[in-house]
Here is the input.
Amino acid sequence: MIKVINPGFYSSIQDLGRFGSQNFGVPISGSMDQCSADIANKIIGNNSIEALIELTMTGCSLKFEIDTEIAITGSDMSPKLNELSVDMYSVIEVKNGDTLSFGRIKYGFRTYIAFRGGINSEKVMESKSMYVGLTKNFKINKNDEIYLNDSKPSLNKKYKASMNKLTLSDEIECYKGPEYSKLTTQNKDKLLSTQFSISNNHNRMGYVLNQKIKNTIKPIITSHVMPGTVQLTPGGDIIILMRDSQTTGGYPRILQLTDRAIDFVAQKGTSSLIKFLIKN
Here is the structure.
């Protein structure tokens, strides 16, 4: 068992996401930076489907009452085991009585902690991803007890040796959205030439950008949206939908981010810069 001493700003249990329930209005959810989460599981020898902990902006503090191994990837939040710094992107042996904590964030915005065997927690609609109103809790709380699966996979030493640190990019690759063609030539040019910045209005549901584009597109019938859909509101705000996004929306869908681009955006916080790049 692992006890949560300090949950940090926003820490939650996530996996690959909740698929096949979007017709009920249920978001996909899952790890915001899927690449970093996948690497954490692979380093520790887990299957990619195993649930892990996602930290947002600040770290947490965990007290271990079990011997296990962990891997930490994504944002560098200065991880420490018993107050001694530990390496990210590597297998970390943890003993009963050890405490994992984090310090100053050096780069990125979200960190992932994978535990050997994966987390044994509540599964709703075939996923352990926490989501408000669907799972019992939408984030980890102080004094929560986290249990691990009994399965003990073999550590993947070869995969560990090939790991690189978190890749950050301001260039966000995307495809033209269904309503992109309805933008004026001037707005298309502005959309692709502007260096946008992330506003302070950002979370797991979506990121609102600071800079606006005049919306001359007529309202559309409520239509399908998904993580990575870029919407343009009547007021000219640009919204990038993220992993907890709604399943339908009535704003024009001007762009659609690639999966890797969603990962890049997930590692950005307030005032971070991005520039859209349409993929041919």
The longest strand covers residues 68-76. The chain has a mean pLDDT of 93.
